Amino acid sequence: MTIRHLLGIGAFVNLLVATLLVSSEQNATGADWPQYRGPQRDGISGDRGLLQEWPAGGPKLLWRYSEAGLGYAGPAIVGDRLYTAGGRGDSEYVFALDLKTAEGGKPRELWSTRVGPLFTWKGNSWNAGPNVTPTVDGDLIYTLGGFGDLVCVEAATGKERWRVNLPGDLGGAVNPIGGGLEEPTPLGWGYAAAPLVDGDKLICVPGGKKGLLAALDKTTGKVLWRSAEVTDQASYSSPLAVDVGGVRQYIQATNKGIVGVAAADGKRLWSYDRSPAYDDVVIATPVFHDNAVYSSVGFDQGCDLARLIVQGQSIAAEKVYSTKVVQSRDGGIVRVREHLYGYSEKGGWICQEFKTGKIVWSEAEALGRGSLTLADGRLYCCAEKGGVVALVEPSPEGWKEHGRLKLPQESKQRRPSGGLWTHPVIANGRLYIRDQEFVYCYDVKK
């Protein structure tokens, strides 16, 4: 082998190493947030290289956008674009912001597309506008309005590809238990289950006599199947896609409990029927871990863990515990190894053992009721009142705070009984907080 060959090999190796280093850096420092509760729908961001301790006063505020409109839809972040939805005037819109134009000012709106009429009704003091974070899948975006308008648009232009109205076209209904709109079609506090893309299917939750869940062709909106054996009215909880015993399935929380249906045809695989049934709004998305499903509901309801047992060709759900020690309303629950973290209406911020349900600690004074997201070993806990976000280390030893920030201004458009209920989003070194018309962006990179 000649020196020239060796030099050529050396140059190739150097180029390969450089390429791998660049790729590694990109993977380590950046992570998109394409849907509600993040890439895996577990409230966990894949972002790395983030501040572990905040300076006094919190991280740097990069920009504020003040025209997002009414609603609780969170941001979906893919690349240099932010997608969300909001009520403007008497309609709901899905829209895109160009994050490249945001530094030093505010992001430029690229397009907006009407989804449907503004969800509200006379005397509603709780919410108005869309509840659902858009789901981004490649060059398509799926969004759901409060009245059940499920719309697919092009990510680049906002051009509508197809639409389906869940109550009108699919016979859907939302469980009005706990209040909300009941006539002429039960819609409660408006549709809130975020659409789920799984392969070629779009999974939605119309609810009602034709089936709780529906699978649509994600490119055309054509109905592929309905879960005809499961006819609960829709809750406000979003579905999960999991594999149990080699079987792909979708898990959905309802007022009766938790159910799993086959991804292939929507047939019921198992159900966990809680006794007594939840008699108020079911909002939190279940937590799936080690073939077990955890669900929690606020308003004095409680939490449950059901273990899924594979028995030949069938699956059975077995109760592990059912208790009132944790009552999570709308702030979500995040699992870190074998512990759960979140806000409980009983006890405040909590750490709970996943397998046993035992409360490890609770903290009621440090921060009021709120929502949370995990990123790079820290919990971002956002209070629903007061505009405060705390950076907390998830630890079974107790509440370990590493700084906090206060929003410059809270929404003045919120309904009187509402709060800052949109969960924090961490993507590509940025923290996003949505409070109705406001979207705040903070720099949380090291």
UniProtKB/TrEMBL annotation:
InterPro entries: PQQ_rpt_dom, Quinoprotein_ADH-like_sf, WD40/YVTN_repeat-like_dom_sf. The lineage of its organism: Bacteria, Pseudomonadati, Planctomycetota, Planctomycetia, Gemmatales. PANTHER family: CELL SURFACE PROTEIN, OUTER MEMBRANE PROTEIN ASSEMBLY FACTOR BAMB. Residues 398-413 have a biased composition (Basic and acidic residues). It holds the Pfam family PQQ_2. It comes from the Bacteria. Residues 108-362 form the Pyrrolo-quinoline quinone repeat domain. This is Putative polyvinylalcohol dehydrogenase. Residues 398-418 are annotated as: Disordered.
